[in-house]
Specification:
single chain, mainly alpha, two-stranded antiparallel sheet, 7 helices, binds zinc ion
């Protein structure tokens, strides 16, 4: 008799996958099976220079789907920084070099981030992207995943927009984020 495969539920993104015995990230809270899928997707991106911009979206999206409970400053800062990066990239994509500069600028203010209560659920997970890893739909699927995840965080959009206006106004993708900020 064949036993049904044991399932594992990811505490971050909520994806249900076949149980897998493996490592997880130091502070992004995921099931080992979910982290393994993420690692597989990354492997395709590392081996294809054309997927560099996609790679950044993958990392940001995965990070904000595995935010933890805000138990450490590291978690809180990671989620804040990745949400800012997701926001900026989706609204007005920058070349990789500029995106890096932006992140370094943002990181100088990371101690100001507060804990943001994560969404109850995510509408798309790495489990929906992994089947397309390495094929022609890879970049499109990641972009869809990133956009939907950003939407899932909608209740904190105003916080992230306000944070950008306050600390990184030069990168604000939309100057109308805050009508009170006139420069
Ligand atoms: Zn997950």
């Amino acid at each position: 008799m064949i036993r049904p495969a044991a399932k594992s539920h990811c505490p971050g993104c909520g994806v249900d996958l076949e149980s897998f015995d493996g490592p997880t990230h130091a502070y992004m809270t995921s099931s080992p099976a979910c982290f393994e899928l993420f690692t597989n997707v990354l492997a395709f991106e590392y081996s294809d220079a054309a997927l560099l911009a996609t790679h950044r979206l993958t990392v940001d999206t995965y990070a904000v789907q595995h935010p933890g409970t805000g138990g450490s400053r590291r978690q809180i800062q990671s989620v804040g920084l990745h949400l800012v990066r997701l926001c900026v990239q989706l609204a007005s994509p920058l070349p990789p070099k500029e995106t890096n500069d932006v992140m370094l600028g943002c990181a100088r203010h990371k101690q100001t981030f507060v804990f943001l209560e994560p969404p109850d659920r995510f509408s798309m997970t790495v489990g929906d992207v992994a089947p397309y890893a390495g094929d022609t739909k890879h970049a499109g699927k990641v972009r869809e995943w990133a956009a939907r995840t950003w939407n899932d965080w909608a209740k904190h959009h105003s916080y992230i927009h306000g944070w950008i206006e306050k600390y990184m106004p030069e990168i604000s993708p939309d100057k109308s984020f805050s009508s009170s900020t006139k420069r």
